[in-house]
Amino acid sequence: MFCYQCQETAAGKGCTVKGVCGKPEDVANLQDLLIYLMKGISKLTVRLREKGEEMPEVNKFITDGLFMTITNANFDKQRFIKKIEAAFLIREKVKNRLTEMGDTAIPSDCSCLTWKAETLEAMEEKAKQVGVLSTQNEDIRSLRALLTYGSKGLAAYAEHAANLGFEDVEIYAFMQEALVATTNENLSADELTGLVLKCGSFGVKVMALLDKANTSTYGNPEITKVNIGVRNNPAILISGHDLRDLQDLLEQTEGTGVDVYTHSEMLPAHYYPAFKKYSHFAGNYGSAWWKQTEEFETFNGPILFTTNCLVPPRPNATYSDRIYTTGSAGFAGFPHIEDRVSGGSKDFSQIIEHAKKCKAPVEIEKGEIVGGFAHAQVFALADKVVDAVKSGAIRKFFVMAGCDGRMKSREYYTQFAEKLPKDTVILTAGCAKYRYNKLPLGDIGGIPRVLDAGQCNDSYSLVVIALKLKEIFGLNDINELPIAYNIAWYEQKAVIVLLALLYLGVKNIHLGATLPAFLSPNVAKILVENFGIAGITTVDEDMALFLG
Ligand code: SF4
Ligand code: SF3
Q1: Is there an atom of ligand 2 within 6 Å of 494 CB?
Q2: pLDDT in tens for each of the 548 residues of the chain?
Q3: Is 493 in the pocket of ligand 2 (CB under 6 A)?
Q4: Residue 28 alpha carbon, nearest atom of ligand 1
Q5: Residue closest to 450 by CA, chosen among 468, 461, 434
Q6: Is any atom of ligand 2 closer than 6 Å to the C-beta of 430?
Q7: What are phi and psi of 412, to 5 degrees?
Q8: Can you tell me the distance from the alpha carbon of 245 to that of 206, in angstroms, rounded to the nearest whole number?
Q9: CA–CA gap between residue 57 and residue 74 (Å, rounded)
């Protein structure tokens, strides 16, 4: 296996024996094979689209397939085998449709269009040959990786939006165009770089679509205090990003005596007006994803994963029989809740019955965290914010969005937040917030010094806020604003957020805890020279740099 898609990749180079994330070699290889087959399907679908026809089934298949291969989403070998078998069938379907339409030149120039396995051994043999290392030139490999990982991020957000009934065919079309481009030997590094930026433009599009899906379904996030203690009832913990799953779960648990708590990236659900009506929506339990091996022990009730980030339980974990997955998440041995049929709901009754037999969660902390500062809420406070900037009460904003992770070096972000001068404000989104959202950082004239917009996709809100400030202050360039970007990344959704920011012209982003291993020296140079991208150093050095 060879995988270098996330920030925690082994030795900062690549996982070759087993993922640091726990992904076993066979699953890693089958993920590569699935991506390979989806490239072939995309070649055919692009051709079909040129003839004016869409196959929604294919769009869904590819979106889900990309999402399943995101870091920490799905570790279930059988699910990948089934998906690969489904890929053979779907590829035939598209070919047949092309034939029906009179296409006499269906391409067969690559085995991604024709190769098929009858046995698992054949799949596993092929899988070893089609991963990222099959591209020899390291710069082309790097750009192909960047494009593929950006597309995985697109797929994740597109799937959440689709679950709420919001779709944009152009986003599906771009994901497929991107997959096809990674097979094109004639594309130069410049042309691939252009596609990477185009991917960023679709990053903006997909985050805007998901924002529209979330806010038009559940209302605009508003300032909310979220309880981080516990009650005395049995409870279900819901993790991941999918708000539609949360809606189904809240509806089905109402009146059952079972409470629902959010975990990690589900925390921002509390900020939406539509979920406030549920009196059994009890609070948020724990911190970012990587602490789950401790926190799930004491939660006592079942845990539902709606997307990444799942950490394989340790062999002696007491909660392994309490985990359920749904959507693109999966893990061998954990019950998987099937997709809803169109117009219906998922059936969470099994989890609810399980919860009723469990003890209430053990309290691991007390208090509240405050969030809900997405674009509409910040616009409502715009006068206050603008006055604070004009008077000098707020000297600078720091966008500290993105992901959290296990690496010790990420203590940097807590120390950075603590050391920031009192006249600065942190704008955050994503699970990176857990590095500082429980610190007593105070407020500036009633404006909290940590403004949490929501999930990683709500980085879109931070962009909308920045563009609004640019307009209010009559500036020509987003980079003239008193905003610095110190972003933490871990998985591929952070890649699409980064590409979206680059597409919008944001310069001088600092990216940590380490720069991606998949950036070759030449590709990293392009990012440094054109966008001023930099890594992080020490808290003091970076602070001095940011504050000039
Ligand atoms: Fe390694 Fe990250 Fe890939 Fe897991 S997702 S195998 S940790 S690079
Ligand atoms: Fe976090 Fe996984 Fe990236 Fe959505 S939950 S930001 S790491």
Answers
A1: yes
A2: 999 999 999 999 999 999 999 999 999 999 999 999 999 999 999 999 999 999 999 999 999 999 999 999 999 999 999 999 999 999 999 999 999 999 999 999 999 999 999 999 999 999 999 999 999 999 999 999 999 999 999 999 999 999 999 999 999 999 999 999 999 999 999 999 999 999 999 999 999 999 999 999 999 999 999 999 999 999 999 999 999 999 999 999 999 999 999 999 999 999 999 999 999 999 999 999 999 999 999 999 999 999 999 999 999 999 999 999 999 999 999 999 999 998 899 999 999 999 999 999 999 999 999 999 999 999 999 999 999 999 999 999 999 999 999 999 999 999 999 999 999 999 999 999 999 999 999 999 999 999 999 999 999 999 999 999 999 999 999 999 999 999 999 999 999 999 999 999 999 999 999 999 999 999 999 999 999 999 999 999 999 999 98
A3: yes
A4: 6
A5: 434
A6: yes
A7: -45, -45
A8: 19
A9: 21
How many angstroms separate the CA atoms of 330 and 308, rounded? Answer: 9
Q: Which ligand is the nearest neighbour of the Cα of 309?
A: 2
Query: 452 pairs with which residues across the strands?
Result: 428
**Which stretches within 69-137 are classed as H helix?**
77-100, 120-127
- Separation of CA 3 and ligand 1 centre (Å): 5
Instruction: For ligand 1, atom 2, name the residue with the nearest CA.
Output: 6
Pocket test for ligand 2, best of 456, 461, 462, 498 (most atoms within 8 A of CB): 456
Q: Is the CB of 5 under 6 A from ligand 1?
A: yes
Residue 522, classed as helix, strand or coil, is helix
Ligand 2 neighbourhood includes 210 CB (under 6 angstroms): no
Token pair 């007006």 in the structure block, residue: 273
pTM given for the model: 0.98
